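1st attempt posting a full record on here, be nice pls
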Amino acid sequence: MPAKVLVVDDEKDLVDLISYNLEKEGYKVLKAYNGEAALGLVHSKNPDLVILDLMLPGIQGMEVCKLIRKNSATSNLPIIMVTAKGDEVDKILGLEVGADDYITKPFSVRELLARVKAVLRRFEASVLQSEKDTFEFRGLRIDFNSHLVTVDGKKVDLSPTEFKILQYLLRRPGRVYTRDQILDHVWADTAFVEPRTVDVHIKRLRTHIEKDTSNPLYILTVRGVGYKFSDDVM
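the predicted structure (as tokens):
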């Protein structure tokens, strides 16, 4: 079955251009020109991925994303946020409300298609991984039941916080998580923890699992936004 992609933008010509190229690649395409229509199609047609413009008439893209994430039936639906703004704040806000990736207008069709393929691939990998008790990637092995972590067969000792960060990033390899998202998940019940705390723990985690901390293989920094686990997980 071809993947079903919902394209949401109030610019009809752009929607048609994106749809034409997606269909050439074998995807089935749904179209919406405002937030209300997008939410209706999400619930009635069950798309596999949403390409969602930030600036929409009626319900804005950010709110659409929030509503998709709040619904248990669609909470894991992959979303690529599209914005005409290059501001880092918009990227961070999009990721904070649950977007899996973002792309800034103007963009090339080739770049968008690459993003679509990558997000779908990562989502499929995360679904398969969620059914397993262990994770293996380029010498790194994690047993989630015993919390045993090895690199090239050698055991590494992680603190409970470091393990929790690693496990959180592995929920969706390749997806960027902001510092605030990591804080909310790992230090949910702790008051007065600053975003800088995330950087400190990521640095410590890298010293345990990375062979070269200046050129990490597993935990990557997305400048100005946050962190992600490698995109190359299959």
